[in-house]
Amino acid sequence: MTNATSQEKPANLALVGASVRALAYAALRAGWLPWCADLFADSDLRAHAFCRQLTAGEYPHRIPEILAQEAAPLPVMYTGKLEKHPSLLARIAARHSLWGNDARRVRALRQPHRLHSALVGLGFPFAPWQCCPKGLPTNGSWLVRTQRDVRRWFGQEPRDKPIYWQRYVAGQPASAVYVADEQHCAFLGATWQLIGQRWCSAREFQWCGNLGPMVCPADLLQQLQRLGEGLARYFGLRGVFGVDFVLQDSLPWVTEINPRYPASLEVLELATGLNWFAAHVAAFTEPCFQQCDLASYCGTLTERQVSHLHSHTATATAAPRRFVGKAVLYSPSALEFAYRAVADIGPLLTPHLRDFDLALADVPVA
User: Which DSSP category does 282 fall into?
Assistant: First the structure.
């Protein structure tokens, strides 16, 4: 479960979620040594960090107990899927310093009427929605959102408990990333989303990667900056968070807010060489973080990061030096993975940002 490198020093941060490899690499690049727990404990994660694989019976509800037994008293960050379990976040926060948006904020974000009110108040559109399917057309022009996924609505009984129904909005799916301190908010960049790609064996609305950085025209850049600032103030968001949206006629239609380190940020970090992990940590640890300009607090940010926040030319308005694509391949059937297959396809991605034309990450154990 550990390697020689990870045994030299004790872990100083705990990371939990469905898959934590991307976040763990960001932490390693920022000089942290994470203790990790997720559903996969992939071989490349094991090579660089303490790693604990969660079983289907343990995930997610036994995570607080496992943290208390194996990772006390480390501060905790969470990744994707756990925002769907605010009561679990509250249990974690009762025993650990939670370096992420807490249960109260997450609950608010998951209420469609709160999100609708926030966006309308900021002057942004939010697709029509309702809490029951009564009177809705069953021709696929509406979607049903459940705890597990999003699907077209044809009048079928949802597999999981539905959260709400919402009209489908056509356009290009994208993701924006921000870092905030409840009062200030900085736009870090945006990426195009890969959604429902057949070559990834993904379902129609299933996320399967990001491409970026996305070059934003000046008007879109202003909209995205205003959007992040408004949402951060309305919901009191802290640290790094993501906003998924559909771009239609240069107008962002928000679909979801991810109140934690989003998967798309790895694409921006790999493309620009900038690491925003320190900024996220500072939002929860620096006493003067909320009292000064986000771009220059406490000397935590590098000169390059400060320049990026002021000008946004690194990833937002100018053609970047390079683009990075990240795709998730979903297995359509059971298979056996062999290490020799890695050499036939490409090298393993490492936390050290080595340049590869093609690299593999989240590699299963043989």
Answer: H
